Amino acid sequence: MPNITLRLGGDILQEVKLIKERTTLGRRPHCDVVMENMAVSGQHACLVLAGQQVSIEDLDSTNGTYVNGSAVKKQLLQDGDVIEIGKFTIKFSAASVAVEGREEEQEGLTVNASLAPAPPVSPVAPLSPISPMQPPADQVGRIKVIAGPGVGRELTLTKIVTTFGKPGVAVAAITRREHDYFVHLVEGIDAPLLNGSPVGQEPRLLGEGDQITLSGTVLQFSQC
Fold first, then answer.
1. Closest by CA position to 223, among listed 172, 165, 158
2. Total Cβ atoms within 10 A of residue 193
3. What CA dihedral angle connects 148, 149, 153 and 158, to 10 degrees?
4. In the list 101, 178, 199, 207, which could disulfide-bond 114, CB 3.0-4.6 Å?
5. Averaged over 123-143, what is the pLDDT?
6. Whole-number pLDDT of residue 110
7. Domain of 29, in residue numbers
8. Which residues pair with 144 in a beta bridge?
9. 33-44 pLDDT, tens per residue?
10. What is the count of structural domains for the chain?
């Protein structure tokens, strides 16, 4: 399965398997791959999966999309190609490789924290560059399974993005932005609930003790 590795300044921020027909890249929180830097457009580019082939398309971005140093509007990707967006770099791999991070199977619920918080992503302009450093340990968020399969398990949210859910049914994500954490729906029709209220693709800020329910599993958020 093809995948991409997002890097920034030599640090790996995220590794994503390309399972969707369109994977969006940009600054807006609802993008599949979020790159928080003003040099990146809200919806900057997208990766299009067609059979075994993957193409990159620039979505009329302000600063352009580059593949191996050349500006492109649409281009078929080859194994090892490097995409540059602002200060971020994205390496394309035709076959999936081992994902860095931690993935737990909880009777159908997958918690995927493979998005590390420091690798260099497609290059982004030097406007308000993201700091690759993690927040102080006493401010790192955590989620704990308090009901459903895997009850009692805990996960520290040290990654930029942590996804969880059942692929093909419902997948949600918790995104870290500075010292705040947001939850939103990634895909599926079974929307997650935040304290009993449905969550869509618009990110919702998490607070101490908030409960997220998805596919029969209840997670409690804490940050201390």
1. 158
2. 15
3. -90
4. 101
5. 54
6. 53
7. 3-93
8. 154, 220
9. 999 888 899 999
10. 2
Dihedral of CA 223/17/30/131: which sign? positive
Alpha-carbon torsion angle 136, 223, 33, 16, nearest 10: 90
Please say which residue of 37, 66, 93 terminates a domain.
Answer: 93
Q: Quick check: is 155 in a domain?
A: yes
**Residue where a domain terminates, one of 93, 116, 150:** 93
Q: What is the DSSP string of 148-176?
A: STTTT-EEEE-SSEEEEEETTTEEEEEEE
Beta bridge partners of 187: 171
Going through 108-216 in order, the beta strands assigned E by DSSP cover 109-112, 141-147, 154-157, 161-166, 170-177, 180-188, 193-194, 197-198, 204-205, 211-214
Write the single-letter amino acid at 213.
T
Is position 205 within any domain? Answer: yes
What torsion do the CA atoms of 120, 85, 204, 164 make, to the nearest 10 degrees? Answer: -60
> Do residue 83 and residue 162 come from a single domain?
no
Q: Is residue 216 part of a domain?
A: yes
Burial level of 17, CB count in 10 A (0-12/13-18/19+)? Answer: middle
CATH number of the domain where residue 192 is located:
2.60.200.20
Between CA 16 and CA 183 the distance in angstroms is 18
Q: How many CA atoms lie within 13 A of 224 on its CB side?
A: 5
